[in-house]
């Protein structure tokens, strides 16, 4: 809420006002056509990723519903980006935050959260190595978050089951895309971790424009077979591709899947930097690689507009010394 003395000024009342309303950039240099790739700059959120949106909506809903009292501690399990988003929100609203994160997720995320006053517990890996996190690793970090919740009574945001995770994208990401494209979007694609982003955005777009085609982007090898979870999808797309069908996922919004190799994700992450001047992470590279495949596939009209997300900043993946891993 604006402070009364801020009338007629251009001042944000807090960092929470920096969440969402991210720009949509045409990638006309990387893909000169036919058709257009439009990329939404989620890395420009204050926590550096798309997960700031669900952080804000989940915490606000819990406070509104009285489940989270002022000053009460918050706990979450994260691949890092949800933790960074929650760290922004909890710092501003005054909630102590603890997150558990597999050790294989990039340490930059832990450094970022801790700089915002959060406590990040890096849980040892069961299967994966640094930079690769399997479902078993994520489950080990989740078990630690559940244990701490039971021990301390902290409020567990529980992003994998929290309806305000997908709700945040139904209420913000989807409407923003619709407005920014002047009501013209032929296809939407995104990688899936909890499925909050895909489920909420696709649901909104299908309500306002039922002809829109929505595609999931998967790291090769992590596609769940007949709905059964697989535990060893080793890939670079941290935060996505756990090899399971998340609770928030809804097949009604799915028109198809694109499988992307690590090599393709790396190639397009690099191309986004060199052609478009934006330094982004691996799921952003995978999303744009998939958008190119879709435009080449001939499924869409020649002049189609394809929207995807640049989920986080490349600063979260810069090389680090071995002793920090
Ligand atoms: C970099 C990155 N991309 C994509 C995702 C997937 O987002 P969601 O959990 O909404 O499916 C995440 C989730 O943490 C992420 O960190």
UniProtKB/TrEMBL annotation:
- What gene is behind this protein? LOC112044710
Family matches, as Pfam families: PALP
Q: Which cofactor does it need?
A: pyridoxal 5'-phosphate
In Swiss-Prot or TrEMBL terms, this protein is called Uncharacterized protein LOC112044710
**Matching CDD domains:** CBS_like
A single GO BP term for this record reads: cysteine biosynthetic process from serine
Q: Which domain of life is it from?
A: Eukaryota
What residue stretches are annotated with the Tryptophan synthase beta chain-like PALP domain?
17-311
The record's Gene3D superfamilies line, in alphabetical order, gives: 3.40.50.1100
């Amino acid at each position: 809420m604006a402070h009364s003395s801020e009338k007629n000024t251009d001042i944000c009342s807090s960092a929470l006002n920096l969440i969402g309303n991210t720009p949509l950039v045409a990638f006309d240099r990387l893909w000169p056509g036919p058709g257009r790739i439009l990329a939404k700059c989620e890395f420009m959120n204050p926590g550096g990723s798309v997960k700031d949106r669900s952080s804000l909506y989940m915490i606000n809903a819990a406070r509104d519903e009285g489940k989270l009292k002022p000053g009460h501690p918050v706990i979450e399990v994260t691949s890092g980006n949800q933790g960074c988003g929650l760290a922004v929100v909890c710092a501003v609203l005054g909630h102590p935050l603890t997150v558990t994160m597999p050790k294989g997720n990039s340490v930059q995320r832990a450094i970022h959260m801790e700089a915002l006053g959060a406590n990040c517990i890096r849980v040892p890996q069961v299967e994966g190595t640094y930079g690769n996190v399997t479902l078993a690793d994520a489950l080990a970090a989740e078990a630690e978050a559940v244990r701490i919740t039971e021990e301390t009574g902290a409020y567990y945001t529980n992003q994998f089951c929290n309806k305000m995770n997908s709700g945040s994208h139904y209420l913000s990401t989807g409407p923003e895309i619709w407005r920014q494209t002047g009501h013209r979007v032929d296809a939407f694609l995104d990688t899936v971790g909890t499925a909050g982003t895909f489920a909420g955005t696709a649901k909104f777009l299908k309500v306002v424009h039922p002809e829109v085609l929505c595609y999931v982007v998967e790291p090769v090898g992590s596609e769940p077979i007949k709905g059964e979870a697989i535990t060893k999808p080793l890939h670079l797309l941290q935060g996505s591709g756990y090899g399971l069908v998340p609770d928030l996922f809804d097949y009604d919004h799915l028109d198809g899947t694109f499988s992307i190799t690590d090599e393709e994700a790396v190639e397009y992450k690099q191309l986004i930097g060199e052609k478009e001047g934006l330094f982004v992470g691996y799921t952003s590279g995978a999303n744009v690689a998939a958008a190119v495949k879709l435009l080449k596939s001939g499924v869409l009209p020649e002049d189609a507009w394809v929207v995807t997300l640049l989920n986080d900043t490349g600063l979260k993946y810069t090389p680090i010394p071995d002793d920090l891993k």
